[in-house]
Amino acid sequence: xxxxxxxxxxxxxxxxxxxxxxxxxxxxxxxxxxxxxxxxxxxxxxxxxxxxxxxxxxxxxxxxxxxxxxxxxxxxxxxxxxxxxxxxxxxxxxxxxxxxxxxxxxxxxxxxxxxxxxxxxxxxxxxxxxxxxxxxxxxxxxxxxxxxxxxxxxxxxxxxxxxxxxxxxxxxxxxxxxxxxxxxxxxxxxxxxxxxxxxxxxxxxxxxxxxxxxxxx
Length: 217
Hints:
Strand order of the largest sheet: 3-2-1-4-5-6
Number of helices: 6
Shape: globular
């Protein structure tokens, strides 16, 4: 499948491109100051990824030349894009984000298009909305930081699978984990204080010597 990245931050675009190519996608990059690679006006794309700040206007140009693929917007919380009719767009990812979450959103849009029902992760009474960045458990809204949201989404996507501290550090913080530190454990404890502690049923479990798993027991 072919993806077009639209933006002006060369380093960020090439970082995303490298990761997507490594996962089997064909990727072109449209730089606002340097045209585009792969002539995007002629290629057929399955998905457009648009950096909202510089890319919103260019999206209209792409639509006019026939690019009708779904769009994933990358945006700051205070710069949410809106449609011409004033409604907020549905497919967006808030910065900062981990590449693992970006990849999950890309795959979801390619598989399900604009079906938002597929963008909600569920485990027990816990629901995580990838589109609205909203977490609810047993009807109660949970207030998570951006990194706590990324950590929880990783655990929920891999529900039932034991994740090592090294993998968690790499996927959420994109850092090399030092085995003699408790960096990941501290963040897991903070997440548990919001997701598990106020509720009788616990979902995040420690697997001694291996890591952590989110599952209903």
